[in-house]
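hey m, so remember when u said the C-alpha cells were messed up on ur end? i reran from scratch. heres the input so u can diff it against urs
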Amino acid sequence: MRRTRSTAALVAASVVAGGMALASPAYADPTPAGTFRQLVGTGSDTTQDVLNALAGDTVNGTDYTATAVKSASGAGLASYDAIGSSTIQTRSGGPVFTRPNGSGPGRTALSMSLTGDKFPTATGVAVQGQVDFARSSGGPSVSGNALTYIPFARDAVGVAVRGSGLDSLTVAQLHDVYAAGSTHTVDGQTVHPVLPQNGSGTRKFFLGAIGLNENTVDTSLPTVQENQANDALTADGTLVPFSVGSWIAQNNGVAPTKSDTAIAAGAHLASITLPNDSGDTSPVTTVNGKLTPVAGYYENATFGRDVYNVVPSRAIDATSIFFDKDLYDVFVTSGAHEAALASDNAEKVISDFGFLNESYNGSINLAKHAKVGGLEISGLDSSTPAKPTLKATLGDASLQLAWTAPSPAPAQAITDYRVTLKDADGGVVATKDLTAATTSYSFTGLATGSYTATVTANNVNGTGAEAIWSGAVRYASAAKATAAATPYGKTPKIAVTVTGTHSVVPGGTVTVKEGTTTLGTGVLGATGKVTVSLSNHLKPATHKLTVSYGGSAKLNASATTVSLAVTKASPAVSTSAPVSVKHTARAKVTVKVTATGTVPGGTVRIYEGSRVIATGTLSGGKVTVTLPKLSKARHTLRAFYAGSATVNSRNSANFVIKST
C-alpha cells in the first residue's frame, strides 16, 4: 500500500510514570480455544464484555450460547478482548498479530485489514482481511467516509473515585485537576488523577468533555488500562474516568470484575454537576439491590455517549461489490431490516451490561447518530480518486456509459467504479458497483425523459469525484433516404422516411447536408415522410449527402447517407440564318442555346463539314456569328455548342445558305 510517509499505527502504550501498570485479569476470546468465527471484531474494552456475550461466549461464568446473535446465514461474532495474550489469530491459517487494545487500535486494525498494511507498525504483520469490525467507545478521529460508525447502545463516562471528599465534582474541577500545570487539588484536598491508556476511547471522550485534549492534559499523569479500578484507585484521593456501563456490569457481577478490590476499599462513582444544572447528578442508582443507569446522566450531551461498532462503509452498501450480507444482518437496522444486535434478546443482554438501549441501535442514518470517518492509519494518503473521463452513447430506451480511469492514478489504487442514474426529479433509478477492470456499463429498458448519470472511481478511502452526464433518453429512430439522378438546372429531390421504435410515429425536422453545408430542410408529415427539395444549381457530380433527423420528445436523432447524381443539363441549339447571300458579302448567323433551369454559356462554332468556319461566345444564351465570305455555291452548315461545366455539348440542325 502506497504511503506519503512511513506507517505509524495509532496503537496504545499503557505506560504510567515510572513504570507499567497493566493488570492481566481473566479475558474471553472466542471459546473454546481455536474457535474461528466469521465476523471478527477487536478494539474497545468498554463494549468487549457485552459483545462477548452477544457472540454466545461464556462471560463471568454465564453461558450466552442461547442468545448469540447471528446473520441470516448463521454467521456469528468473534469478539477479541482488548487485553489478554499479547497476540491473536482471527482466521484459521491466518497471521498472528498484536492484540489491538482500545478503540483507536481497534479502528486501526480494521483500517489495515482493508488496506493490507502491517499492524501495529510497519515492522508488524500484514492483517488484510483479518478484522471485520471494530468496537469503539468514541467517534471518528479522521475525516472521510471509508468507515461507518453504527450506534450500538448509550453509555456514559463517569468518574470513579476513592475517598469521601470526592463524592461530588464539577466539570471545572475536573478540568483543573487534569490540565497541564495542575496543582491537583479539589477544595484544598490533594488528589491523584489517573487516566486510561493512550488509544482509549474513554480517555479521548473524557478529555473532550472537560475541555482538554492530548496537547493540554497533564502528560505526567499515570495511566492504566481503562475500566480497571483496582489498578487506578489504589489510595484515597484517587480518581479516574470510567465507563458507567462497565462500572454497572462489574458491580452487578455480570462482567468480569477488575474493580472489586477498589470497591471494597470504598471506590464509587462521583456525582457530577452537569452543565447548566444547579445540582449534581449521580450516574447510577440502585434498584432491587442492583446498580442501574440514571437515564438523565446517560442522555446528557456532555457525559453521555453512543458506543459504536465500526464497519467498512462499502461492506454494508447493498449495491457494492464488497457488500457483506452477514455483516449487514448483524449490525444494520434500515427500513424493515432489523440488526440482529437490535433484537429483543440482544437488547436484554445489552441492558444487563449497564447500557441503555436506544431506538437508533443499528442505524446508518447520519441524522440518527451514525457517523462516518476515514481510515485510521497514520501517514496513509487519504485522497480519493479524481473523476474518470466519461462518454455517453444514447440508444433505444438505453444509455451506455464508457469511461477511462482518472489521471494521474490515485495513490491508493482504484478498487471499483460506481455508476448511478437519476431521473429528472433526482430520484435514483439505478446504481451499480463494478470491478476496477470494468470501463463501461449500459442502462436499458428506460422510460423516455431527462436523466443524470454519474460515474465515480473509488478506493479504500471512499468515493471519488463524480463524472457527470445529463441529457434525454428516448426511443430509437431510423432514417432512410433515396435520390434520383437529376440534370443540372432541375430541382433534386431527396425522399426521406423516418421510423421509430415502440410504435412512435416520428415528427420533426430533417436536414440534408453536404459536408458542413446545409442544402435543405423539411418537416416530416403524419406518416414520418418528407421530400426535401435542394438547389437546382448543384454542380454536376456525385454528391455524398448526410440526411439527419433531429429527433423528437420521444425519439433519438438518427442519420443516414445518400448519393445524389447531378448530371449536366441537356441543351437545345437553334439557328437563324439568311437563305442566300452575295458572295461578296458576309452572312450573319444567330445561334441560341437553351437548357431547363439555366442560361448556357460558352463557345459556339460554325462548321461546314468538318471545317470550323467561324466561332462565337454565348451571351445570355445566344450569339450572332459573322461568317466569312462564302464562294458561289450552296453551303450546308451547322452550329456546334461546345458545352460548359453544367451543360452538355450539342449540334444544331443543319442549315443551308446559298451564295450567289
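this time it looks ok to me. The radius of gyration is 46 Å. if urs says something different then somethings off w ur setup not the seq
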